[in-house]
Amino acid sequence: MGPLIGWFGRGKRVSAGDSDLKENIPNHIAIIMDGNGRWATRRGLPRIAGHRAGMNKVREAIRACDELGVQYLTLYAFSTENWKRPQDEVDYLMRLPEEFFRTEINELLKRGVQVRFVGDVTQLPTYTRETVVNTQRLTEGNTGMVVTFALNYGGRAEVIHAIHHYADQVKAGLATWEDLSEENFGRLLSTFPVPDPDLVIRTSGERRLSNFLIWQSVYSELWFTEVLWPDFTRTTLHEAIRDYQRRKRRFGGLK
């Protein structure tokens, strides 16, 4: 494996040892970033130390995907169920977006990365909401890789919200229930117009989606690893992509 190259200011490249990765790169990769707390506990550290280490891996994942030519990257940052965690841990997690984008925004802009957020941001603290709004505003005109952060996100809540929205359209005479289809329903989801993920990666050894992109991932390839998120490396990502490239995607049909 060649050394890591700078995220910004250089052209994209794949090292010579990874030349096989140039073909059939997933257009959209989604990652369930799991295992921060366990990573810290195993080292005798507070759980928040694991979340800080995990934040650093977000930076590396964006860099690695961008260099490979991935067009869309979606990261599960905070679920609707994560509010059940200890308050001090939740408070720390709510501060991380502000810290991350304060240090990374200039580099994101230089590269042309567009940042999006999905999830119910109305329940987030004011300082977190301000980070969300400002980051989206600053990057909305960028035309490079689209990085989406799922923040206070739940797949079931997203579907329910879309149903209510469509019902409002029917009530207003703008749509009918007979016209409801998978295609126009998908347009009501918060992820639209980002395409469905080709590959969903989950770290930490857990083998479930945990309410993440439940509509969008019906035909995604799933890849699970025992690696905890703070230990996730470029090598781990390449391993997942190589496994993806060996699979035959039939989408319910035959080839």
Highlighted features:
six-stranded parallel beta sheet, 13% strand, 255 residues, 7 helices, alpha/beta
Task: Characterise the protein shown here.
The longest helix has 25 residues, at 87-111. Strands 3-4-2-1-5-6 form a six-stranded parallel beta sheet, sandwiched between helices. It contains seven helices and six strands. The protein has 255 residues and is an alpha/beta fold. It has one domain: Decaprenyl diphosphate synthase-like (Undecaprenyl pyrophosphate synthetase, 3-Layer(aba) Sandwich), CATH 3.40.1180.10. The two termini are 34 Å apart. 32% of the residues are buried. Helix 2 (47-68) runs parallel beside helix 3 and helix 3 (87-111) runs parallel beside helix 4.
Distance between the termini: 34 Å
> What percent of residues adopt helix (DSSP H or I)?
40-55%
Radius of gyration: 19 Å
Low-confidence stretches: 1-13
Q: What is the residue-averaged pLDDT?
A: 91
